[in-house]
Amino acid sequence: FVFYNINIDKHFYLGKEKLHQKLILANNIELLAFNNNDNFKVNSNINFIATISKNEFRGNITINLILKKLI
After folding, report:
1. 8 - beta bridge partners?
2. By the 8 A CB rule, do 33 and 20 touch?
3. SS3 content of the chain, % helix, strand, coil (to 5)
4. Distance of CA 34 to CAs 10, 20, 25, 37, 59, Å?
5. What is the sign, positive or negative, of the torsion defined by CA atoms of 1, 59, 11, 25?
6. Could you report the per-residue pLDDT of 24-49, keeping only the tens digit for each?
7. What's the Cα-to-Cα distance from 4 to each of 18, 55, 57, 59, 70, rounded to whole Å?
8. Torsions phi, psi of 58, nearest 5?
9. What is the DSSP string of 33-47?
């Protein structure tokens, strides 16, 4: 899926070595960027290609986007 002009509301690093990033987008949608060293800034807009993934954790099911490429 292609997304244009999407605002970043929050940004977190994940993992022991902080190689992965989680971006919280509009409507609390999570975008996960694995093995990614891009410098994302809160309140900036990005264009990207992502896949959709179902996440099940402790009985809760959420939908995540997995970053494939910035455009």
Report:
1. 25
2. yes
3. 5, 65, 30
4. 16, 4, 16, 9, 24
5. positive
6. 998 889 999 999 989 999 999 999 99
7. 26, 24, 29, 32, 10
8. 50, 45
9. ETT------TT-EEE
